[in-house]
Here is the input.
Amino acid sequence: MKLSEIQKVLDAEVLCSNDLLQREVFSCFACDLISEMLLYVTPNTLVITSLTNIHVVHTAHVMDAVGVVFVGGKKPDAAAIKNSEMMHIPLLTTNHLIFECCGRLFVNGLKGNKKTIDDADACR
Amino acid sequence: MPVDNLQYTPHIKLEFKIDEKDFFMAGESASRVKKTLQQLGLHQDIIKKIAIIIYEAAMNVSIHGSHGMLRIYIDPESILIETEDKGEGIPDIELAMQEGYSTASHEVREMGFGAGMGLPNIKHCSDELHVDSKVGVGTKLQAKVYLNKKRHAE
Here is the structure.
């Protein structure tokens, strides 16, 4: 599923990196705890959250997330949006809340992220 | 594969100063170290573990540590992440290591931290973890990640 399709499914507005909406989304992770995002977000995961601070952007960048959707019509400040653009992380905002977003994406075929940090041991 | 390429990796030290409530630096330092490790050719899952340790440890310094330093030592066998602060110290390290235990402020919780997952996450991602703390003096944390765990276990 591409980010552009997710934008339509969630009636979302794109806040930055419009040019990256053709990116493929492999899985989805929704939460409002940065520590959990750090543990469970893997490359090409879409993050859904109501947090709007710069840590969401940094975490998405560090964990190679494919993009971030802010729920409830929330938007990060201009500095966070600018940072995200520089880091090539598309940001979207929707008026829907977390449960509604997850439900819409699930019925459209997007699954939750099952990978954990323990999988990293397989590579060394 | 990527790990074996590291036999030629030079010894590298990265250093970041962390001020009290400088919450920006945690993510910034994790981002910068990630780029360096990518350039060295480390596997992305190893980079992720190291980034998590750096992010959580640096946040702990800015939240509880008053001010301090973050140092990353890279060598061909392992990566050591070290934070040293002059903060309030940890009265009961065993309790602080328990998932869900937190003394973080409302401000920190509003940012999405302070759920009592910081030290447990660091422990989870580390092969070795040492935390030394003295109340009223400060805390020193050292977390090591081996680049070839099987070779180290032999």
